[in-house]
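User: Quick sanity check before I run a bigger batch. Here is a single chain. Can you write out its predicted 3D structure?
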Amino acid sequence: MKTLIVGAGALGGLIAARLTAAGVPVCLATRDAGSAAGLRASGLRVSGVGGALAVPVAAAGPVEQYLGAAFDLVVLATKAGDAMALAPRLPGLLGPGGTLLPIQNGSVALALAERLGVERVLGGLSNLGAAMTAPGTVEQRNAGHLLLGEVGGGESARAERVRAWLGRGVAARVTPNFRGAVWSKLLINCSGTTLGAIGGTTLRGFTATAHGRDLFHRAYDEALAVALASGARPERMAVDPVPPGWNGRSVPGEALDAWLAGVIAAYGDAKPSMLQDFERGRSTEIDFLNGHVADLGRRLGVPVPVNEALVEAAQAITRGRSAPGPELLERVWAAAGGGAFP
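Assistant: Done. Predicted structure follows.
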């Protein structure tokens, strides 16, 4: 497959480096010509889980350079907002029968499929943990994988073909329930990741308090209610996506405590990527996470006050009106009608 990776950050750089090391030729699309020149000069270096390597970058340039190049596969590894901004130009990168594979968090793949057509877009999610420690230098932080699937559901030769191609460099799997997989990740992102980012800590950090655990469950319950109302059936990840005894809300007790302990064991110590965005003054993916839940909840008539409050809090941080910290979680609680912090 003639392959282009759009986005040379931590995730795009990791995938490009692993594929190149495995003998799979790829082109890289960067934000601008200067970034491309830097990558061609330095190459890509990877450390951490999966082993260290260094590879040359032979083909790198801005997106405009590749318009009309007729790629068989375009892996979209940008931030969510950048992915949507690029949407009008993406068909110009694909050849006849070419496939666009967005691998952002949240609802990006669904939105792009709606805009460009399911025949062009193959759903993707990334469970690969990576951080860019310097330009062209990436640290792989887990033994994760890419998850692929048809947006409309079911199995396909296309999904298997792309899995086998990318699997030469990174672990890749296929699911027949892609929408369910999107929601499985959204549930954790909308509760653990966003709350951790707004609280300036990790999932383990903010759930160490009773009010932090309560906020987690309220955000999670709202997102799960929206998912089920939409007709999606979230897949099992680290734990069953439906908490034990769930009846529209989480039921306190030993079973729920054990369930949350499983979530924390799997995700509790990772620094939220949204918190890193706050620290670097970058835009976040909040509109495609809690924002998606809030928008869909309003359309379906499902109350989502906590997720709405989380969107407002994240936007306030981005605009410089607030800062991440425990006191902001108190304000989220109050804005969502929780009254005084318990």
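The longest strand covers residues 94-102.

User: Great, the batch can go ahead then.
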